Amino acid sequence: MPPCFPTYPNALGNCPSGATTCTPPASVASHLTTQISAFSPNFQTPYTEQASLTLEHGLTRKLTPSASYLYVHGEHLIRSLDANLPKPKFVEYPVYNDQSVLTGDYYSVASFATWQTKRSVDCPYPPCINDVPCPDPRLGIINSFESEASSIYHGLTLLLKGQSSRELFVRVGYTFAKAMDDGQDGLVVGRPGNVQSAYATQLEGGLSVTDRRNRIVASTVNEPKSLSL
Q1: Whole-model pTM?
Q2: Domain assignments of the chain as residue spans, ordered by start
Q3: CA angle 101, 102, 105 (to 5 degrees)
């Protein structure tokens, strides 16, 4: 069975330069998709800035408390933008109660598509969002991977370690932390990203999905004395 895709230097198709359309070969037509993923031309390598401070003091020969602070600042983190979205327009969004009855209140919201506010077969529980009219209807999502996201992490850890006996060591730690970002997303092959709007000049920051405010960890280590024969 011949391979689906040609090997170098054989070309996949014969498309003239500057053509806006190109019919793919029948051997690969069923494998093609209308979704495109590409890196931004100004993509930069993500990096983090870290700082930490630890204070430790021995209360007794067998009991030592400590306090540690950790700061991590991420810059040029990855997030994906959909470049095939129309420019959003502000629409008056109707407010409904739990029984899908219009309350008479409206609030303004930026939307890529129009809203359907009347009950129908396609919209049994209004309001419903209509299909988004893409600028290029021949294509679906155009994921542009940007390096514009950032994150901040603050963490304070209180640790108490001691020796309860000659052979048993105990450690108890408590961490109070806060993680925030403005839309970073891990780049995983085969999984769509959390697509953001390409028209958002500055995304709002908020708690990160990795935010864990409180954590307690306790552990013990038993080191039996070695026996000499």
Answers
A1: 0.64
A2: 44-85+136-223, 86-133
A3: 150
